[in-house]
Write a structure and sequence with these properties.
- This protein has a domain at about 5-115.
- It is about 60% helix and about 0% strand.
- It is built from 22 helices and two strands.
- Keywords: Membrane, Transmembrane, Transmembrane helix.
Protein backbone atom coordinates (compact mmCIF):
# COMPACT_ATOMS: atom_id res chain seq x y z
CA UNK A 1 0.00 0.00 0.00
CA UNK A 2 1.31 3.44 -0.88
CA UNK A 3 0.99 6.53 1.24
CA UNK A 4 -1.57 7.94 -1.22
CA UNK A 5 -3.96 5.14 -0.26
CA UNK A 6 -3.78 5.91 3.45
CA UNK A 7 -6.58 7.79 5.13
CA UNK A 8 -6.02 10.67 7.49
CA UNK A 9 -6.74 8.31 10.40
CA UNK A 10 -4.15 5.86 9.07
CA UNK A 11 -1.53 8.60 8.90
CA UNK A 12 -2.28 9.70 12.45
CA UNK A 13 -1.73 6.15 13.66
CA UNK A 14 1.57 5.89 11.79
CA UNK A 15 2.66 9.22 13.28
CA UNK A 16 1.80 7.79 16.69
CA UNK A 17 4.20 4.93 16.07
CA UNK A 18 6.80 7.47 14.91
CA UNK A 19 6.42 9.37 18.18
CA UNK A 20 6.87 6.12 20.12
CA UNK A 21 10.08 5.31 18.24
CA UNK A 22 11.50 8.82 18.73
CA UNK A 23 10.80 8.57 22.46
CA UNK A 24 12.54 5.21 22.81
CA UNK A 25 15.85 4.81 24.58
CA UNK A 26 17.85 4.27 21.40
CA UNK A 27 16.50 7.36 19.64
CA UNK A 28 16.07 9.78 22.55
CA UNK A 29 19.84 10.28 22.76
CA UNK A 30 20.29 10.90 19.02
CA UNK A 31 18.58 14.08 17.75
CA UNK A 32 19.99 13.61 14.25
CA UNK A 33 18.45 10.14 13.85
CA UNK A 34 15.12 11.42 15.21
CA UNK A 35 15.13 14.30 12.73
CA UNK A 36 16.19 12.03 9.86
CA UNK A 37 13.42 9.51 10.59
CA UNK A 38 10.78 12.19 11.17
CA UNK A 39 11.65 13.85 7.88
CA UNK A 40 11.55 10.71 5.70
CA UNK A 41 8.34 9.48 7.36
CA UNK A 42 6.69 12.87 6.80
CA UNK A 43 7.77 13.02 3.16
CA UNK A 44 6.61 9.47 2.54
CA UNK A 45 3.20 10.10 4.11
CA UNK A 46 2.89 13.30 2.09
CA UNK A 47 3.23 11.28 -1.13
CA UNK A 48 6.69 12.58 -1.96
CA UNK A 49 8.61 9.34 -1.45
CA UNK A 50 10.07 9.44 -4.95
CA UNK A 51 11.46 12.91 -4.27
CA UNK A 52 13.56 12.01 -1.22
CA UNK A 53 17.24 12.18 -2.14
CA UNK A 54 20.44 12.54 -0.17
CA UNK A 55 20.67 16.18 -1.22
CA UNK A 56 17.14 17.00 -0.04
CA UNK A 57 17.85 15.37 3.31
CA UNK A 58 21.11 17.31 3.63
CA UNK A 59 19.34 20.56 2.75
CA UNK A 60 16.15 20.09 4.78
CA UNK A 61 17.40 18.10 7.78
CA UNK A 62 21.03 19.12 8.15
CA UNK A 63 20.45 22.65 6.78
CA UNK A 64 23.64 22.47 4.76
CA UNK A 65 23.97 25.24 2.17
CA UNK A 66 24.59 24.17 -1.44
CA UNK A 67 28.05 25.76 -1.29
CA UNK A 68 29.18 23.58 1.64
CA UNK A 69 32.48 21.81 0.98
CA UNK A 70 31.40 18.76 2.99
CA UNK A 71 30.24 15.74 0.97
CA UNK A 72 26.60 15.80 2.12
CA UNK A 73 25.55 12.71 0.17
CA UNK A 74 28.21 10.61 1.92
CA UNK A 75 27.13 11.93 5.31
CA UNK A 76 23.49 11.08 4.58
CA UNK A 77 24.39 7.54 3.48
CA UNK A 78 26.30 6.96 6.71
CA UNK A 79 23.42 8.25 8.81
CA UNK A 80 20.94 6.16 6.81
CA UNK A 81 22.94 3.07 7.75
CA UNK A 82 22.92 4.16 11.39
CA UNK A 83 19.17 4.69 11.20
CA UNK A 84 18.55 1.22 9.76
CA UNK A 85 20.58 -0.35 12.55
CA UNK A 86 18.81 1.76 15.17
CA UNK A 87 15.41 0.68 13.87
CA UNK A 88 16.48 -2.95 13.88
CA UNK A 89 17.68 -2.61 17.47
CA UNK A 90 14.42 -0.90 18.44
CA UNK A 91 12.26 -3.69 16.99
CA UNK A 92 14.43 -6.30 18.68
CA UNK A 93 13.80 -4.59 22.02
CA UNK A 94 11.34 -1.86 22.98
CA UNK A 95 9.41 -2.09 19.72
CA UNK A 96 9.12 -5.87 19.57
CA UNK A 97 5.35 -5.71 20.05
CA UNK A 98 4.65 -2.79 17.70
CA UNK A 99 1.92 -3.63 15.23
CA UNK A 100 3.47 -1.47 12.50
CA UNK A 101 7.15 -1.45 11.58
CA UNK A 102 9.11 1.19 9.69
CA UNK A 103 11.75 0.07 7.20
CA UNK A 104 14.22 2.06 5.13
CA UNK A 105 15.47 -0.42 2.57
CA UNK A 106 19.08 -0.37 1.43
CA UNK A 107 19.54 2.12 -1.39
CA UNK A 108 16.31 3.93 -0.47
CA UNK A 109 15.37 6.83 1.78
CA UNK A 110 11.58 6.50 1.60
CA UNK A 111 9.93 4.57 4.41
CA UNK A 112 8.22 1.23 3.89
CA UNK A 113 5.46 0.48 6.39
CA UNK A 114 5.00 -3.17 7.36
CA UNK A 115 1.71 -4.23 8.92
CA UNK A 116 -0.68 -7.17 8.97
CA UNK A 117 -4.02 -5.83 7.82
CA UNK A 118 -5.03 -3.64 4.92
CA UNK A 119 -4.58 -0.33 6.70
CA UNK A 120 -3.07 0.83 9.99
CA UNK A 121 -6.59 1.73 11.16
CA UNK A 122 -7.75 -1.86 10.70
CA UNK A 123 -4.51 -3.05 12.30
CA UNK A 124 -5.18 -0.95 15.39
CA UNK A 125 -8.81 -2.09 15.61
CA UNK A 126 -7.70 -5.70 15.29
CA UNK A 127 -5.10 -5.24 18.02
CA UNK A 128 -7.69 -3.70 20.35
CA UNK A 129 -9.93 -6.72 19.84
CA UNK A 130 -7.05 -8.99 20.74
CA UNK A 131 -6.29 -6.95 23.84
CA UNK A 132 -9.95 -6.98 24.85
CA UNK A 133 -9.83 -10.76 24.68
CA UNK A 134 -6.88 -10.74 27.06
CA UNK A 135 -4.24 -11.60 24.47
CA UNK A 136 -1.70 -8.83 25.02
CA UNK A 137 1.11 -11.33 24.51
CA UNK A 138 0.04 -11.59 20.88
CA UNK A 139 0.76 -7.98 20.04
CA UNK A 140 3.41 -8.59 17.37
CA UNK A 141 1.55 -8.63 14.07
CA UNK A 142 3.43 -8.24 10.80
CA UNK A 143 2.87 -8.43 7.09
CA UNK A 144 3.45 -11.51 5.01
CA UNK A 145 0.82 -13.76 6.61
CA UNK A 146 1.26 -17.13 4.99
CA UNK A 147 -0.45 -20.43 5.41
CA UNK A 148 0.42 -23.86 4.03
CA UNK A 149 -2.34 -26.01 2.72
CA UNK A 150 -4.81 -25.57 5.57
CA UNK A 151 -7.14 -28.45 6.34
CA UNK A 152 -9.94 -28.40 8.84
CA UNK A 153 -10.89 -31.70 10.40
CA UNK A 154 -13.95 -31.92 8.20
CA UNK A 155 -13.17 -29.48 5.38
CA UNK A 156 -11.55 -29.37 1.98
CA UNK A 157 -7.96 -28.26 1.52
CA UNK A 158 -7.49 -24.53 1.18
CA UNK A 159 -4.80 -23.76 -1.37
CA UNK A 160 -2.92 -20.73 -2.53
CA UNK A 161 -4.96 -20.49 -5.71
CA UNK A 162 -8.17 -19.58 -3.92
CA UNK A 163 -6.91 -17.79 -0.83
CA UNK A 164 -3.41 -16.47 -1.59
CA UNK A 165 -2.29 -18.43 1.49
CA UNK A 166 -4.13 -16.16 3.91
CA UNK A 167 -6.24 -19.02 5.27
CA UNK A 168 -9.85 -19.65 4.29
CA UNK A 169 -12.06 -18.25 1.58
CA UNK A 170 -14.77 -15.84 2.72
CA UNK A 171 -17.46 -18.53 2.39
CA UNK A 172 -15.41 -21.03 4.40
CA UNK A 173 -14.69 -18.43 7.07
CA UNK A 174 -18.39 -17.64 7.41
CA UNK A 175 -19.25 -21.32 7.69
CA UNK A 176 -16.60 -21.93 10.32
CA UNK A 177 -17.61 -18.81 12.26
CA UNK A 178 -21.16 -20.12 12.53
CA UNK A 179 -19.95 -23.57 13.55
CA UNK A 180 -17.14 -22.59 15.93
CA UNK A 181 -15.87 -19.01 16.41
CA UNK A 182 -13.11 -20.36 18.66
CA UNK A 183 -11.87 -22.64 15.89
CA UNK A 184 -11.79 -19.74 13.44
CA UNK A 185 -9.85 -17.59 15.89
CA UNK A 186 -7.42 -20.46 16.47
CA UNK A 187 -6.84 -20.86 12.76
CA UNK A 188 -6.25 -17.13 12.29
CA UNK A 189 -3.80 -16.98 15.19
CA UNK A 190 -1.84 -19.96 13.92
CA UNK A 191 -1.55 -18.51 10.41
CA UNK A 192 -0.50 -15.11 11.78
CA UNK A 193 2.09 -16.76 14.01
CA UNK A 194 3.43 -18.78 11.11
CA UNK A 195 4.35 -15.52 9.44
CA UNK A 196 6.44 -14.52 12.46
CA UNK A 197 8.78 -17.51 12.57
CA UNK A 198 11.54 -16.09 10.35
CA UNK A 199 14.06 -14.64 10.82
CA UNK A 200 14.39 -17.22 13.59
CA UNK A 201 17.53 -15.56 14.97
CA UNK A 202 15.28 -12.88 16.50
CA UNK A 203 14.31 -14.34 19.91
CA UNK A 204 11.47 -11.87 20.48
CA UNK A 205 9.74 -13.06 17.30
CA UNK A 206 9.96 -16.69 18.38
CA UNK A 207 8.61 -15.88 21.83
CA UNK A 208 5.68 -13.92 20.36
CA UNK A 209 4.87 -16.64 17.83
CA UNK A 210 5.09 -19.32 20.51
CA UNK A 211 2.51 -17.49 22.61
CA UNK A 212 0.18 -17.26 19.65
CA UNK A 213 0.45 -20.98 18.87
CA UNK A 214 -0.17 -21.83 22.52
CA UNK A 215 -3.29 -19.67 22.50
CA UNK A 216 -4.48 -21.33 19.28
CA UNK A 217 -4.15 -24.73 20.97
CA UNK A 218 -6.21 -23.57 23.96
CA UNK A 219 -8.94 -22.28 21.64
CA UNK A 220 -9.04 -25.43 19.49
CA UNK A 221 -7.06 -28.39 20.87
CA UNK A 222 -7.89 -30.58 17.86
CA UNK A 223 -6.68 -28.07 15.24
CA UNK A 224 -3.35 -29.41 14.02
CA UNK A 225 -1.94 -26.02 13.00
CA UNK A 226 -1.42 -24.79 16.55
CA UNK A 227 0.46 -27.95 17.48
CA UNK A 228 2.53 -27.97 14.28
CA UNK A 229 3.58 -24.36 14.71
CA UNK A 230 4.44 -24.80 18.38
CA UNK A 231 6.60 -27.79 17.51
CA UNK A 232 8.50 -25.79 14.90
CA UNK A 233 9.12 -22.96 17.37
CA UNK A 234 10.34 -25.36 20.07
CA UNK A 235 12.66 -27.03 17.60
CA UNK A 236 14.18 -23.72 16.56
CA UNK A 237 14.62 -22.60 20.17
CA UNK A 238 16.72 -25.65 21.01
CA UNK A 239 19.51 -24.42 18.75
CA UNK A 240 19.78 -21.21 20.76
CA UNK A 241 19.98 -22.96 24.12
CA UNK A 242 22.92 -24.55 25.93
CA UNK A 243 22.88 -28.30 26.47
CA UNK A 244 21.01 -29.29 29.59
CA UNK A 245 17.67 -30.15 31.12
CA UNK A 246 15.90 -27.00 29.93
CA UNK A 247 16.85 -27.65 26.31
CA UNK A 248 15.85 -31.32 26.62
CA UNK A 249 12.46 -30.26 27.98
CA UNK A 250 11.85 -27.88 25.05
CA UNK A 251 12.84 -30.61 22.60
CA UNK A 252 10.45 -33.09 24.22
CA UNK A 253 7.64 -30.54 24.18
CA UNK A 254 8.20 -29.87 20.49
CA UNK A 255 8.22 -33.55 19.62
CA UNK A 256 5.03 -34.13 21.61
CA UNK A 257 3.18 -31.40 19.72
CA UNK A 258 4.54 -32.59 16.37
CA UNK A 259 3.03 -36.00 17.13
CA UNK A 260 -0.29 -34.41 18.08
CA UNK A 261 -0.30 -32.35 14.88
CA UNK A 262 0.28 -35.46 12.80
CA UNK A 263 -2.48 -37.32 14.63
CA UNK A 264 -5.02 -34.54 13.99
CA UNK A 265 -3.83 -33.67 10.49
CA UNK A 266 -2.22 -36.75 8.93
CA UNK A 267 -2.65 -35.39 5.39
CA UNK A 268 -1.62 -31.84 6.27
CA UNK A 269 1.63 -30.58 4.75
CA UNK A 270 2.16 -28.42 7.83
CA UNK A 271 1.88 -31.38 10.18
CA UNK A 272 4.16 -33.52 8.00
CA UNK A 273 6.72 -30.72 7.78
CA UNK A 274 6.57 -30.07 11.52
CA UNK A 275 7.20 -33.71 12.35
CA UNK A 276 10.10 -33.80 9.89
CA UNK A 277 11.62 -30.73 11.52
CA UNK A 278 11.44 -32.25 14.98
CA UNK A 279 13.07 -35.44 13.70
CA UNK A 280 15.91 -33.28 12.40
CA UNK A 281 16.20 -31.57 15.79
CA UNK A 282 16.40 -35.00 17.43
CA UNK A 283 19.15 -36.10 15.02
CA UNK A 284 17.07 -38.51 12.93
CA UNK A 285 18.12 -37.14 9.56
CA UNK A 286 16.64 -39.76 7.24
CA UNK A 287 13.26 -39.59 8.99
CA UNK A 288 13.43 -35.80 8.82
CA UNK A 289 14.07 -35.83 5.08
CA UNK A 290 11.34 -38.40 4.52
CA UNK A 291 8.55 -36.49 6.28
CA UNK A 292 9.67 -33.13 4.94
CA UNK A 293 10.02 -34.49 1.42
CA UNK A 294 6.53 -36.00 1.60
CA UNK A 295 5.09 -32.64 2.62
CA UNK A 296 6.86 -30.91 -0.26
CA UNK A 297 5.72 -33.61 -2.68
CA UNK A 298 2.09 -33.05 -1.65
CA UNK A 299 2.38 -29.33 -2.37
CA UNK A 300 5.64 -28.10 -3.97
CA UNK A 301 4.27 -24.54 -3.85
CA UNK A 302 3.85 -24.47 -0.07
CA UNK A 303 6.62 -22.01 0.69
CA UNK A 304 6.41 -22.51 4.46
CA UNK A 305 7.09 -26.21 3.98
CA UNK A 306 9.90 -25.31 1.58
CA UNK A 307 11.47 -23.11 4.28
CA UNK A 308 11.87 -26.01 6.69
CA UNK A 309 12.71 -28.53 3.98
CA UNK A 310 15.55 -26.29 2.84
CA UNK A 311 16.84 -25.96 6.42
CA UNK A 312 16.76 -29.72 6.99
CA UNK A 313 18.59 -30.53 3.77
CA UNK A 314 21.00 -27.60 3.94
CA UNK A 315 22.23 -28.32 7.46
CA UNK A 316 22.39 -32.04 6.77
CA UNK A 317 24.66 -31.27 3.79
CA UNK A 318 22.43 -32.00 0.79
CA UNK A 319 23.19 -28.74 -1.00
CA UNK A 320 22.21 -30.20 -4.38
CA UNK A 321 18.69 -30.89 -3.07
CA UNK A 322 18.30 -27.28 -1.90
CA UNK A 323 19.67 -26.02 -5.21
CA UNK A 324 17.09 -28.10 -7.12
CA UNK A 325 14.03 -27.38 -5.01
CA UNK A 326 14.48 -23.87 -3.58
CA UNK A 327 15.32 -21.72 -6.60
CA UNK A 328 13.33 -18.48 -6.04
CA UNK A 329 12.89 -18.12 -9.81
CA UNK A 330 10.38 -20.99 -9.64
CA UNK A 331 8.14 -18.74 -7.56
CA UNK A 332 8.61 -15.54 -9.51
CA UNK A 333 4.94 -14.51 -9.28
CA UNK A 334 4.66 -15.01 -5.51
CA UNK A 335 5.59 -12.84 -2.57
CA UNK A 336 8.69 -14.31 -0.96
CA UNK A 337 8.87 -11.88 1.94
CA UNK A 338 10.57 -13.42 5.01
CA UNK A 339 10.97 -16.83 3.37
CA UNK A 340 14.24 -18.31 4.55
CA UNK A 341 14.61 -20.80 1.68
CA UNK A 342 16.03 -17.97 -0.45
CA UNK A 343 18.94 -17.66 1.98
CA UNK A 344 19.57 -21.41 2.20
CA UNK A 345 19.45 -21.57 -1.60
CA UNK A 346 22.17 -18.91 -1.82
CA UNK A 347 24.24 -20.53 0.92
CA UNK A 348 23.99 -23.89 -0.87
CA UNK A 349 25.42 -22.29 -3.98
CA UNK A 350 28.34 -21.05 -1.86
CA UNK A 351 29.05 -24.59 -0.64
CA UNK A 352 28.74 -25.87 -4.21
CA UNK A 353 31.60 -23.53 -5.16
CA UNK A 354 30.02 -20.66 -7.12
CA UNK A 355 30.68 -17.59 -4.98
CA UNK A 356 29.60 -15.02 -7.58
CA UNK A 357 26.25 -16.73 -8.05
CA UNK A 358 25.88 -17.01 -4.27
CA UNK A 359 26.38 -13.24 -3.93
CA UNK A 360 23.77 -12.59 -6.62
CA UNK A 361 21.33 -14.97 -4.92
CA UNK A 362 21.82 -13.31 -1.52
CA UNK A 363 21.25 -9.88 -3.07
CA UNK A 364 18.14 -11.22 -4.78
CA UNK A 365 16.88 -12.56 -1.45
CA UNK A 366 17.26 -9.15 0.16
CA UNK A 367 15.56 -7.47 -2.80
CA UNK A 368 12.57 -9.80 -2.55
CA UNK A 369 12.15 -9.35 1.18
CA UNK A 370 14.04 -12.39 2.45
CA UNK A 371 14.91 -12.40 6.15
CA UNK A 372 17.93 -10.32 7.13
CA UNK A 373 19.80 -12.39 9.68
CA UNK A 374 23.30 -13.09 10.98
CA UNK A 375 23.50 -16.34 9.00
CA UNK A 376 22.69 -14.75 5.64
CA UNK A 377 25.06 -11.87 6.33
CA UNK A 378 27.84 -14.29 7.26
CA UNK A 379 27.46 -16.11 3.96
CA UNK A 380 27.57 -12.82 2.07
CA UNK A 381 30.89 -12.00 3.78
CA UNK A 382 32.27 -15.46 3.02
CA UNK A 383 31.16 -15.34 -0.62
CA UNK A 384 32.86 -11.97 -1.17
CA UNK A 385 36.01 -13.21 0.58
CA UNK A 386 36.23 -16.31 -1.62
CA UNK A 387 35.40 -14.29 -4.72
CA UNK A 388 38.44 -12.10 -4.04
CA UNK A 389 36.55 -9.02 -2.81
CA UNK A 390 38.73 -8.93 0.30
CA UNK A 391 38.27 -5.25 1.17
CA UNK A 392 34.51 -5.50 0.88
CA UNK A 393 34.47 -8.71 2.93
CA UNK A 394 36.40 -7.01 5.73
CA UNK A 395 34.10 -4.01 5.60
CA UNK A 396 31.04 -6.28 5.84
CA UNK A 397 32.66 -8.13 8.75
CA UNK A 398 33.03 -4.88 10.67
CA UNK A 399 29.43 -4.00 9.86
CA UNK A 400 28.32 -7.43 11.07
CA UNK A 401 30.10 -7.06 14.39
CA UNK A 402 28.45 -3.67 14.90
CA UNK A 403 24.98 -4.92 13.96
CA UNK A 404 25.05 -8.27 15.80
CA UNK A 405 27.74 -7.94 18.50
CA UNK A 406 26.38 -10.83 20.58
CA UNK A 407 25.05 -13.19 17.93
CA UNK A 408 26.83 -16.39 19.09
CA UNK A 409 26.55 -17.26 15.40
CA UNK A 410 29.43 -19.72 15.29
CA UNK A 411 28.12 -21.77 18.22
CA UNK A 412 24.61 -21.87 16.72
CA UNK A 413 25.66 -22.75 13.17
CA UNK A 414 28.06 -25.46 14.35
CA UNK A 415 25.20 -27.03 16.26
CA UNK A 416 22.92 -26.87 13.21
CA UNK A 417 25.33 -28.51 10.76
CA UNK A 418 25.37 -32.30 10.87
CA UNK A 419 28.82 -32.37 9.27
CA UNK A 420 31.28 -30.11 11.10
CA UNK A 421 33.38 -29.74 7.94
CA UNK A 422 30.62 -27.65 6.36
CA UNK A 423 30.72 -25.29 9.31
CA UNK A 424 34.52 -25.17 9.03
CA UNK A 425 34.22 -24.14 5.39
CA UNK A 426 32.15 -21.12 6.38
CA UNK A 427 34.05 -20.01 9.47
CA UNK A 428 37.54 -20.55 8.07
CA UNK A 429 36.57 -18.19 5.27
CA UNK A 430 35.03 -15.70 7.69
CA UNK A 431 38.16 -15.69 9.85
CA UNK A 432 40.21 -14.86 6.76
CA UNK A 433 37.97 -11.78 6.46
CA UNK A 434 38.73 -10.70 10.02
CA UNK A 435 35.92 -12.53 11.77
CA UNK A 436 36.06 -12.91 15.55
CA UNK A 437 33.91 -15.58 17.21
CA UNK A 438 31.56 -14.25 19.89
CA UNK A 439 31.87 -17.22 22.22
CA UNK A 440 29.62 -20.07 23.34
CA UNK A 441 25.88 -19.95 23.86
CA UNK A 442 24.71 -18.11 26.96
CA UNK A 443 23.92 -20.08 30.07
CA UNK A 444 20.20 -19.40 30.07
CA UNK A 445 18.54 -20.47 26.90
CA UNK A 446 16.02 -18.31 25.18
CA UNK A 447 17.75 -14.95 24.64
CA UNK A 448 21.03 -15.49 22.70
Amino acid sequence: MTSRELTLADKKILLGFLKKICGSQGFSSSPRLREFLTYVVGETLAGRADMIFGKTIADDVYKRPPSSSVDSSSLVRVDAGRLRRALEAYYAGEGAEDGVRFHIDTGQYAVRFEYLLETPTEQLVGRRKVLAAGLAVLGVLVAGVVGGIVFLNSGEPVTQKNTQRTGLSSAQRAALLNRSPRALEALDLAIQARGLIFPATNPSRLIAAKGMFERAIKLSPTYYGGHAGLAQICGLQTFFMPLGEERDAIMSLGYKHAQIALAHGPTSTWAQSSFGWMEFVRGNIEEARSFSGRALEIDPADLDVLDFDSLINFFSGDFEHVFRTADPEKFDTQSLKRHVFMVTYAASIFHLGDEEKAIAALNNSAARGGPISPIGSAYLIAAHQKAGDVALARSLTQEFETTWPNSQLEAIVRRLFVDVENADTLFDTLKAAGWHATGPLPATGSEP
